[in-house]
Amino acid sequence: MGVTFNFGQFFLSGRTVIGDTLHEIGLKNDKLWVLTPDTGAALKAFKRDCGDRFVDVGIAEQNVVGIAAGLALEGNIPVIMGMIPFMTMRACEQVRTDVCYQNLPVRIIGTGGGLTSEGGSTHNAMEDIALMSSLVNMTVISIGDPNMIRDILWASMEYPGPMFIRLAQGKKDRVIYEEGTMKYEIGKGIVAREGKDATIFAHGEMVFQALEAAFRLEEEGISVGVIDMFTIKPLDKELVLRVVEETGRIVVLEDHLMYGGLATAISDLLMDRAVYPKAFRRLGIPQVYAGFGTGEELRKKYGYDTEATVRAVREVLEK
Amino acid sequence: MDKQQEIARLEALAYELRKKLLHLCGTYGGPVHIGGDLSAADLLIALYHYGMNVDPNNIMNPARDRFILSKGHGAVCMYIAMALRGFFDYDEICATYGKLDSAFGMHPCKVQLPGVETSSGSLGHGLSIAVGMALAAKQKGQKHRVFCFMGDGETCEGSIWEAAMAAGSYKLGNLIGIVDRNRQLMTSYTEDFIHLEPYADKWKAFGWNVIELDGHNMAEIVAALDSLPAPDSEQPTVLIAHTIKGKGVSFMERDIGWHAGALSEEDLERALKDLEATYGKSGVENNGRNL
Predict the structure, then answer these.
(1) By the 8 A CB rule, do B180 and B40 touch?
(2) Residues of B in contact with A53 (CB under 8 A)
(3) To 5 degrees, how large is the angle CA B89–CA B90–CA B93?
(4) Element spanning A234, H or E
(5) Is B62 a domain residue?
(6) Quick one: A101 and A169 in the same domain?
(7) pLDDT (tens digit, 9 = 90+) per residue, B42-69?
(8) Secondary structure of residue A66 in the 3-state scheme
(9) ipTM
(10) What's the structural domain count of chain A?
(11) According to the model, what pLDDT value does residue B1 have?
(12) Domain that holds residue A147
């Protein structure tokens, strides 16, 4: 698979892509409703042109999810844009009981994934993938390239059942893949980089960091593959099993608690299939409320920045 | 049919519903939320047999009124009120209630039981869903109403007031809340710990048109339903229906022990006699088993 990288030369606001895409879809598809609990700054164009399908409920996440369920029961496709901890924790039961139990096509876009929010532990989102993945019927997506959002949102108009879409800050996101060269299919991971010696699985903003580590190791003659597992649920099992067979030395890197997210999904699959890698390391947030600082500073402090990723690859190679 | 006859017909149906509820409570073998079923019975009959535009032969009619049982534990009362209207088969409800693979369980499940508009059971959720349905109808210019039936206890949940605020703000004149104000929660009375009063003022403050009524007086219920503002008006309406938990059975009325329970054979007989004493003149004579 050929992937062309910009490798972080370009930046784009994920929120802008969301606003533009929802506007585009909204003009063509009158089933689309856009809702927000007071986090709709990027949604001005939709509000202007599709105002009768725009709902701002104020700061009321439980309510926004219930309303979305009601709209979906009437045949609409509601997209909620909010902050991850409040959408997935404050409103968790509404997401589970009103949306997932009835298998409704509600889409929840959350910003502030992992430790990127800069708001401290109230606003960090380190449990969301564990919570959302555990919900029956839920699809879980983690966006690593802002251009990916466009394809995912368009695809979500046809995709069955509920969906959670995780972003980092969504403000100044690195464009990883050359625009227009990628096709993102829900449920299919991307081989962002082929590698013979070891493989890093990552999602969201950590894909860039995994690539950064891989390029650095290349200078030492170590060939490291990177898998962008942007769909965490359903997991691309075929791809995981193939890669484990090929390199057998696995690092899973994610901006999430290191247990309960992608690493857990992968290790569960490997155990279930009795496929044992030669070495397996997980990098992510330990059992800690991480506090203040930028995402980069916190990843360094808690041991899953680029340096730590390079070290982890070296370690799995020693085994 | 003139109004008096219509009210008498509804009263007879409510008596029938109560008998059937008691019968199920005496035969199911597990707990039935009989207290809150009996407080809701007159209102649910009035809605399904008079106030709402629903058709058991066309359950997906886009023009139908929508009904959400936010107090999902009143499911069996809704099932039987709907069965009396021809939606479901009462014998099937009795034979399968709560059993493996039944469509009829303690809390309504839309996936298993088409004909109910939404699954419910977790309290405080229904009004938000109703707001979503009402917004959808308003945006499409549809003329139906969305009815959301709540228990007063569940209005302790903050999410109810989030939804109430949104309904007032979005001017949802097509949204009708009904509160079964039986003044009891599961283990206490509503004013014991958390004070719901001044209750009507709360709804008014959130922008609602408030109608208070006796939820066991069929003439008052019918009058309230007749007086609902047009669906394209700009203010949601709530009917605060003052009711009695366990209404119609003397040993259940306002008794904390009868939030949910099962009736022994002996108690079933006592309960049916009680009902007969209160409602027996309403003209429907059968044993509660046959439609």
Answers:
(1) yes
(2) 139
(3) 95
(4) none
(5) yes
(6) yes
(7) 999 999 999 999 999 999 999 999 999 9
(8) helix
(9) 0.95
(10) 2
(11) 72
(12) 11-173
